[in-house]
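Try this one yourself first.
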């Protein structure tokens, strides 16, 4: 089950990456004042945090007091890594980090839960949530048909909403 979910996640990441490659990174998204660059930066850092949670749960958990102390500043810090990068470098960095995260989740032993910003999750739950989020983002940001096969959700929604009207394969 996890293998199939991770393959779905990879496919949806590829769709979203293709959509982003066709838009202006300065385009504002509905989650103002964020733009497409900020949203991709958020996903890039989210993938890095997913990798950390899967490979070094103690290091991930050690960051949680920062979230509690100042969640706004913590979230804003996720935008910095993408600023100043060329579009090509941003997209490649995002893709590389995404692949590292997916590979790490594939290696988590069955029955293991990894820490996250809510309750700990199994790799299947993490992949399901992420696939759902990425699928929604792709559907809501594209002006062309996108067949993700998953219900909408997530931070990527702002990205796809900014890039054009949603075209869902189920509509």
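Now uncover the answer:
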């Amino acid at each position: 089950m996890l293998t199939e979910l991770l393959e779905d996640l990879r496919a949806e990441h590829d769709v979203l990456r293709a959509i982003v490659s066709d838009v202006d990174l300065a385009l504002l998204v509905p989650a103002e004042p964020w733009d497409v660059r900020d949203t991709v930066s958020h996903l890039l850092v989210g993938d890095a945090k997913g990798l950390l949670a899967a490979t070094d749960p103690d290091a991930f958990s050690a960051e949680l007091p920062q979230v509690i102390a100042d969640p706004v500043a913590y979230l804003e810090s996720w935008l910095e890594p993408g600023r100043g990068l060329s579009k090509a470098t941003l997209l490649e960095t995002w893709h590389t980090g995404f692949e590292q995260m997916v590979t790490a989740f594939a290696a988590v032993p069955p029955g293991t839960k990894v820490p996250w910003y809510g309750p700990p999750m199994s790799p299947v739950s993490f992949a399901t949530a992420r696939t759902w989020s990425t699928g929604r983002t792709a559907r809501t940001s594209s002006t062309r048909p996108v067949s993700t096969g998953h219900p909408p959700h997530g931070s990527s929604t702002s990205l796809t909403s900014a890039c054009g009207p949603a075209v869902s394969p189920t509509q």
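Discussion: Confidence is low (pLDDT under 50) at residues 137-158, 164-171. The helical segments are 2-21, 36-55, 57-69, 71-77, 87-107, 123-141, 156-163.
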